[in-house]
């Protein structure tokens, strides 16, 4: 397949899964409870360095679900706002994960200090840059963006802060803990980070001084990279 750009760290197309160990399976069976049948259930987790490593694939009785463990940095109210946005996008016929209700009628549950949700599974592979894929992705992302900016402003809690203190602390921590990066990202990606960290920090400081960003209060997808675009038969199947 002819590609439209050079391969990079996001060019791995196939989504890799592996079976969970007994300990994790026991925890997940407790989480899904009566929501999903436990008969002949197959539970998988992301394999390798994945950006969404807290996602679990649950296969049972001809249906497939995605169970998500949310970041502990997020409050329950903030997560619910993400879920409300997804539900709104589903109603608008957008190709996004469709949240499912637990037995208590809620889309979000808390177990052992962690929040969990589950969704209908979107089948496919990561976007990898073929010309046919690029045509489909660019067309769909344009339509998706046009739709998502219509999301009612009353449902948006705050505007995005560019060059935040939290972002700066992350890149400074990476600079001070270079030896730990291999264990977190693997050799290939950590080498790329190390080679560019000083430049990133310089640009961060410079741009923060030069520009005053005034963002409109609207929803955008801040993290739309190839691993967040799911393709099937060279067409977008989910974002």
Report on the structure:
The protein is of the alpha+beta class and 239 residues long. Helices cover 36% and strands 18% of the residues. It is built from 6 helices and 10 strands. The protein has helices at residues 22-32, 76-91, 131-148, 165-176, 181-185, 187-210; strands spanning 17-19, 42-46, 55-60, 63-69, 99-100, 109-111, 114-120, 125-126, 230-232, 235-238. The strands form 2 sheets. Strands 1, 2, 3, 4, 5, 6 and 7 form a 7-stranded antiparallel beta sheet that branches. A 3-stranded antiparallel beta sheet has the order 8-9-10, covered by helices on one side. Strand 9 (230-232) and strand 10 form a beta hairpin. The chain is globular, with a radius of gyration of 20 Å. 11% of the residues are buried.
Descriptors:
239 residues, alpha+beta, globular, seven-stranded antiparallel β-sheet, three-stranded antiparallel β-sheet, 6 helices
């Amino acid at each position: 397949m002819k590609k439209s750009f050079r391969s990079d760290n996001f060019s791995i197309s196939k989504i890799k899964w592996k079976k969970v160990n007994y300990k994790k399976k026991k925890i997940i069976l407790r989480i899904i409870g009566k929501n999903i049948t436990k008969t002949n259930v197959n539970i998988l987790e992301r394999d390798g360095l994945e950006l969404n490593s807290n996602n679990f694939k649950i296969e049972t009785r001809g249906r497939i679900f995605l169970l998500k463990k949310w970041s502990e940095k997020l409050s329950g109210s903030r997560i619910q706002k993400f879920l409300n946005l997804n539900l709104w996008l589903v109603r608008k016929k957008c190709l996004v994960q469709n949240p499912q209700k637990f037995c208590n009628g809620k889309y979000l549950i808390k177990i052992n200090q962690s929040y969990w949700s589950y969704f209908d599974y979107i089948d496919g592979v990561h976007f990898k840059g073929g010309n046919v894929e690029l045509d489909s992705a660019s067309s769909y992302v344009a339509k998706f963006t046009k739709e998502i900016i219509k999301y009612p402003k009353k449902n948006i809690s705050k505007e995005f802060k560019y060059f935040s203190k939290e972002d700066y602390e992350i890149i400074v921590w990476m600079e001070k803990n270079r030896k730990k990066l291999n264990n977190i990202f693997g050799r290939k990606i950590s080498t790329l980070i190390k080679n560019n960290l000083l430049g990133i920090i310089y640009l961060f400081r410079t741009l923060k001084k030069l520009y005053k960003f005034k963002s409109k209060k609207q929803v955008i997808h801040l993290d739309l990279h190839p691993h967040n675009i799911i393709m099937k038969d060279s067409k977008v199947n989910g974002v």
